[in-house]
Design brief:
By secondary structure, the chain is an all-alpha fold. About 6% of the residues have low confidence.
């Protein structure tokens, strides 16, 4: 029996065994051996295939999916629209000759369409996706109890950039998405136009019943931004030392020779880890300044060692008392850095930890104000002024979120207030918070027939500052009691003892 080796060229047809002509090429007979085939050679067949004009562009097999393929212009148009959106291309790309020629080459059945058609279909797709998202927003969590976080709009505003214009844009958007009666709070930074925007939105939303619990919890300032303002204000007190350190680092990292000499000295003489590199800070990001101070202190001995051989270092290396000041301030800023990392977490909801972080910062500032270092006291004064300016009312809205955390509840908030204000003022603050929570509960009870399960997340990583500040919390819980009047669902929750701060919690068993 002969073996037919198919080659995609009709020029090689030399048999008539009923196979399609396109498959007929080279016949191997039973008597042929590999040396015989090699002797006769097949290189001429390969060369012929490379230059043959009769060679077809492709093969068609009976079991191929290509025979079942049905061209759908609508599906192709959707893919082109996705290509435009994901790549940020101009709508006019569909009218370019190169694009149309490419699509015609890929499929002759392609029907060209204009940029106006592109715009029309994209708007239709946007409306469909928007309606899907509206349905999705009917529940704040999905079946796996993960909170939803969606970017609903990103828009460049035309001048004027004032609070009223921004409020108009936000209000129009809320009405369009039918969210004007479902707003709890809005988080903004400290820009003046944001204050005007908040005032304007309140006037519009409160009469429509669009704010939960009235306007008590509506305006929330960005906690990470406030920490940045507080620390930046304090760093101005040591601006001279910071300028020295920046100039010293620039002098080293801008020269490959000096940089190589610096790290070589650090490794061979002081046995330091040279994977840790010198880095300049960004003036608008205080945490980069904190890291710069840390690396400078780490390589302090290297700076001092190279001072004798580099005259250019003399004017930039801080004096000994300045190094001591840098060390104290770096240790002081450590808590701010840890709290910022706590606020900036993305793998779990953080609303329940803001009160704890803000309270730790507040107590840290008060203790530093009474500390042994005069320069630190001077540094803390403007920081406390910034804190009081932006966070004087943090007790209310951050306390409510903390109380709904099963590990904190009222006991934790009461403990924190007592450390700052004493028992009398702490009791007044707690009553204010509980009154606000009960008012919110009554509002929700009127709107919803049933309550939703409480989502409890694992505790965030503990910080060194947190361990120092809460040593006597367990004793406080065991010695203090609070009485609750009535037995609503909220009060039943508040009556239960809080869980241990570091306990493991199974949400399905809670």
């Amino acid at each position: 029996m002969n073996l037919v080796v198919p080659l995609p060229c009709t020029c090689f047809n030399n048999t008539d065994n009923s196979l399609p002509a396109i498959y007929l090429a080279y016949v191997v007979k039973p008597a042929d051996t590999l040396p015989d085939i090699a002797a006769s050679g097949t290189s001429h067949l390969k060369r012929h295939l490379e230059r043959c004009a009769n060679r077809p562009q492709g093969l068609t097999f009976e079991d191929s999916d290509e025979e079942n393929f049905v061209f759908d212009m609508n599906e192709l148009r959707k893919e082109i629209l996705n290509f435009i959106v994901e790549g940020g291309h101009s709508f006019t790309i569909v009218e370019e000759q190169g694009f149309r020629k490419m699509m015609k080459r890929a499929n002759p059945k392609f029907i060209p369409f204009s940029r106006a058609t592109t715009k029309r279909y994209l708007l239709k797709a946007y409306v469909l996706e928007r309606d899907k998202l509206k349905d999705l927003l009917s529940n704040v969590s999905d079946d796996s109890w993960k909170l939803r976080k969606k970017i609903l709009r990103f828009r460049a505003l035309a001048p004027p950039y004032d609070g009223v214009s921004i409020a108009n844009e936000i209000f129009m958007f809320l009405c369009q998405w039918k969210l004007d009666d479902r707003i709890l709070s809005i988080i903004v930074d400290n820009a003046t136009y944001n204050d005007a925007m908040i005032t304007c939105l309140k006037r519009r939303l409160v009469p429509r019943g669009g704010l939960s619990c009235g306007e008590t919890l509506f305006h929330v300032r960005c906690c990470a931004h406030i920490i940045n303002l507080i620390v930046q204000k304090g760093l101005t007190c040591i601006s001279g030392i910071l300028d020295k350190i920046r100039s010293l680092i620039k002098l080293i990292i801008k020269s490959s020779h000096r940089s190589e000499e610096f790290y070589d000295c650090a490794k061979k003489i002081f046995h330091l880890d040279v994977k840790r590199k010198l880095n300049l800070d960004m003036l608008v990001r205080w945490n980069s300044t904190y890291k710069m101070l840390g690396t400078s202190l780490y390589f302090k001995d290297v700076f001092l060692h190279l001072r004798s051989s580099h005259a250019s270092f003399q004017s930039y290396i801080p004096l000994e008392h300045e190094w001591e000041k840098v060390s104290v301030i770096h240790n002081f800023l450590e808590l701010f850095y840890e709290v910022t990392c706590m606020f900036s977490a993305v793998n779990y909801p953080t609303s329940n930890v803001y009160f704890k972080g803000a309270w730790m910062v507040h107590r840290h500032l008060l203790e530093a104000e009474k500390g042994p270092y005069d320069y630190l006291q001077e540094m803390v004064k403007p920081m406390l002024e910034k804190f009081d300016k932006y966070w004087s009312d943090y007790n209310l809205y951050l306390s409510c979120a903390a109380i709904f955390y099963p590990r904190y509840k009222v006991k934790f908030v009461e403990y924190c207030f007592s450390k700052l204000y004493g028992s009398v003022e702490a009791s007044r603050q707690i009553n204010l918070v509980l009154g606000t929570m009960k008012s919110m509960f009554e509002d929700y009870k009127l709107q919803y027939a049933s309550t939703s399960p409480i989502v409890v997340t694992p505790p965030p990583p503990s910080t060194s500052g947190a361990r120092n500040y809460f040593d006597d919390y367990d004793h406080f819980v065991g010695t203090s009691t609070r009485s609750q009047v009535g037995k609503s669902q909220l009060e039943m929750y508040l009556d239960d003892d809080p869980l241990d701060l570091n306990s493991q919690l199974d949400i399905l068993e809670f």
